[in-house]
Write a structure and sequence with these properties.
It contains 11 helices and 11 strands. The chain is globular, with a radius of gyration of 22 Å. Strand 1 and strand 2 form a beta hairpin. By secondary structure, it is of the alpha/beta class.
Length: about 325
């Protein structure tokens, strides 16, 4: 059975982004064309490679195994193709290949990465989402030059043993969740309180965190089932802030995702354990990182320190 390289190219792009629309944009193809090409590949291989859901797609077990086998070779071919194209024309922008172990981690760094792109217009940041089990091989093979991961108090996203063979890990710090209310509920911010004292209020959870974090807080709240049904799950911080203005709600947002809200919001002092998230960046010791990669690492560290200093200020 002979399978066209173009089918693997389409599969590779979808696997990197976990999203058909973004893959189509990178390949300069229409979404229906990308979907058809993926269906051709799945038909030829004889197994489904992705599971479709409302927010995109995720690799099946067979899809993960295929990614594991072919990604190094595909990446070499794509890199060679770009080098040949650049030798025939003007010098192409330098690309830094990033990977994230969770979509919410990628979202957390979007503002800082956007500022880095603005400051470095000749640098392209190429992002993908891959399971943590593939991070080590991705970094060693060159599929990614820099990996981002996160782990929480309640459920580590990364194993307890962070150090991987020949992988340099650098912590960007630990960040605590923030509890916010609108100023019309400012009486709640005057004294420290336990979460179960807020059981009658509607809660707004940051949706990009997995259910483990939400269940952690729901257990401390002790809400009755009918009151739990009033809680909301939103993935856009701006939408959360807007809703807080017009409802008697309490919002829980990971601190690293939080843009500085205006004086209309108050932080609550919660006595119960609050989830802390540690963010890490990793790169391969086997490959000498490009100067621009190390520049990005330094930029992330400096930006994180300043961002958290600002967020730590009382609102």
């Amino acid at each position: 059975m002979s399978i066209s390289f173009e089918l693997f190219r389409v599969y590779f792009a979808i696997a990197r982004y976990q999203n058909i629309t973004r893959a189509a944009e990178e390949l300069c193809l229409s979404r229906p064309t990308v979907t058809q090409e993926l269906q051709k590949l799945e038909k030829q291989i004889g197994v489904p490679l992705f599971t479709r859901h409302s927010r995109g797609v995720s690799l099946t077990q067979e899809g993960k195994e295929l990614f594991h086998k072919i990604s190094p070779a595909i990446q070499v071919l794509l890199d060679t193709e770009r080098e040949l194209e650049s030798s025939r024309g003007p010098k192409a922008p330098e690309t830094i290949k990033l990977c994230f172990t969770r979509s919410h981690t990628m979202h957390a760094f979007q503002d800082i990465l956007s500022r880095f792109r603005d400051d470095h217009p000749d640098t392209v940041l190429q992002s993908s989402i891959i399971p943590h089990a593939f991070v080590q091989e991705a970094l060693h093979s060159g599929f990614a030059e820099l990996a981002f991961g996160a782990r929480h108090d309640y459920k580590p996203y990364l194993p307890d043993e962070v150090e991987l063979p020949d992988i340099q890990s650098t912590s960007l710090g630990v960040f605590e969740d923030v509890f916010l209310v609108h100023e019309h509920l400012s009486h709640l911010a005057n004294t420290p309180m336990s979460l179960n004292a807020l059981a009658d209020y509607q809660f707004i959870f940051y949706k990009d965190r997995d259910m483990g974090g939400m269940e952690h807080y729901l257990a401390l709240l002790g809400q009755e089932p009918e009151k739990q049904s009033r809680n909301l799950y939103l993935s856009e911080p701006d939408a959360i802030f807007n809703l807080l203005k017009y409802s008697d709600s309490v919002a829980i947002i990971p601190a690293f995702h939080l843009r500085r809200p205006d004086g209309a919001f108050r932080r609550l002092q919660i006595l119960d354990p609050i989830i802390r998230t540690e963010y890490l960046i990793q790169y391969s010791k086997r490959k000498l990182p490009k100067p621009t990669v190390m520049e990005l690492v330094a930029y992330l560290q400096n930006s994180k320190n300043q961002a958290y200093a600002d967020k730590a200020k009382p609102i």
